[in-house]
Amino acid sequence: MADTIFDLVVLGGGPAGYTCAIRASQYGLKAALIDANDRLGGTCLLWGCIPTKAMLFSAEIWDHLKHADRYGIDIGDVTPKLNWKGLLARKDDVISRHVKGLDFLMKKNKINAIKGYGRLTGPAKDGVHTIEVMLADGKTDTVKAKKVVLATGSDARMLPGYKPDETILTNYEILKIDEAPKSLVVIGSGAVGVEFASIFKSFGAEVTILEMLPRMVPAEDEDVSKELLRLFKKRGIDVNLSVKDTKIEKNKDGVLVSFVDSNGKAQTKQAEKVLVAVGRAPRTYDVGLDKVKITPDRGFILTNEWMETTEPGIFAIGDIVAGLPQLAHVGSMAGLVVAARIAGKYAKAVNRTRIPGCTYTDPQIASVGLTEAQAKEKGFQVKVGKFPFVGNSKATIVDAHDGFVKVVADAKYGEILGVHIIGPYATEIIAEAVTALELEATIEEMMFTIHAHPTVAEALLDGFSSVEGMAVNV
Length: 474
Ligand SMILES: Cc1cc2nc3c(=O)[nH]c(=O)nc-3n(C[C@H](O)[C@H](O)[C@H](O)COP(=O)(O)OP(=O)(O)OC[C@H]3O[C@@H](n4cnc5c(N)ncnc54)[C@H](O)[C@@H]3O)c2cc1C
Prior knowledge:
By secondary structure, the protein is of the alpha/beta class. It has helices spanning 15-26, 42-47, 49-66, 84-108, 171-174, 191-202, 222-234, 328-343, 372-377, 393-397, 426-438, 443-447, 458-466; strands at 5-11, 31-35, 112-120, 129-135, 140-150, 154-156, 168-169, 183-187, 206-210, 238-240, 244-251, 254-260, 266-271, 273-276, 280-282, 314-316, 357-359, 365-369, 382-388, 404-410, 416-422. The chain folds into three domains: 5-155 and 282-343, FAD/NAD(P)-binding domain (3-Layer(bba) Sandwich); 168-278, FAD/NAD(P)-binding domain, CATH 3.50.50; 363-466, FAD/NAD-linked reductase, C-terminal dimerisation domain (Enolase-like, domain 1). The strands form five sheets. Strands 1-2-3-4-5 form a five-stranded mixed beta barrel. Strands 7-14-8-9-10 form a five-stranded parallel sheet.
């Protein structure tokens, strides 16, 4: 490999890295992609977005089967049984199909995909960077390129003093467990924590959530947090907020989790397993940053809007970037921006205020733009509308009346500042709100945008109209 000089080498084959390499090749650049894993796809495809959503789909079917009679389906004396091995096999099949798809895309785009662990060796010499690669067979090679894109992703954080094993789990271990646990404590109520809580509740586990902050899904609008709390409690999930001093003790039946509750009272919870979902740490500790002029900030890499680091010729994208939400679609968009910049083509920088965030719980959550509190903090005169799904006919059809669409708008010009949804298909219909914000649409424009009937998306039409107190269906 040492003789070839690539236009760019990407370190890390997750969604940020592979998207960047593919787009670079579409621009006619010669790209290499190095990944330490035996399969491409990164956290998202192998241990994150895709497997969890495959499991959630099974959970959704299971939930519907439990109430089949409600939909006019008589399953007689048959008691549906959860086939955990079958469920995991289906999840693995979904992953495998997409891993194969990525291998195909590497070939189609003539990307040199290298299996190995890469490290920077120093600044560019005569405009060429050298990456040292430990290959899977233990041998070392070097890859030379004019530009380097770091996309090494993140690892699950653990509570200090604990290590993951078969009872203390992170997203990695929980996706491989032999059987669905009968009881589960989830530490952390961000997207990862509440998604697993939702999945295992559907499969019949007794689920307890421990969150140190005063509300669940703390990145979301406060009204959404309150609604999720209400609906999770309705589903029988035990949610404990403002908890402190969480400790885990293993015993013969699993784990005893102790904590101090919001009233300052010591509590314990016995469970088969505990999932620690307290955030993701950037994987930047062993990629040779010390050899170049990049000083990470608590592990995260600082970049400018074009994802350039402080070392000339080296870019960073994805979960390792400071200040960017750790989401697959953010990483992949950053990858597209970098590929365009390296190719000298038109690019639009990632706008950090127009990033959709999706949480695939039951009910789903999706949002884009400013929360009501953020808009007020920024000095906007805010006008807010809220439309409950109970007024949406498609929501009745799919038997999912919980939740609402909340729209935050600027009172003066009517510009839409934020859209916050909790309810059916929230993660699908948010795309319209993202486009509306991207095009700086006003409430008035959206009130005269035709939405097909009957669709859940019509709740957005009513949501926008509710800002003017004119939702039709409520
Ligand atoms: C349970 C869970 C569910 C999630 N669900 C969603 C979701 O629904 N939607 C969403 O948008 N996001 C979701 N995420 C977040 C998403 O997975 C990440 O934001 C995304 O994977 C980040 O992409 P990335 O390319 O930056 O890094 P990663 O996907 O982590 O990929 C990094 C790659 O770099 C490789 N690598 C690391 N170091 C080296 C090295 N030195 N040399 C070579 N290769 C290296 C790794 O092997 C890995 O393949 C979820 C995360 C988790 C944990």
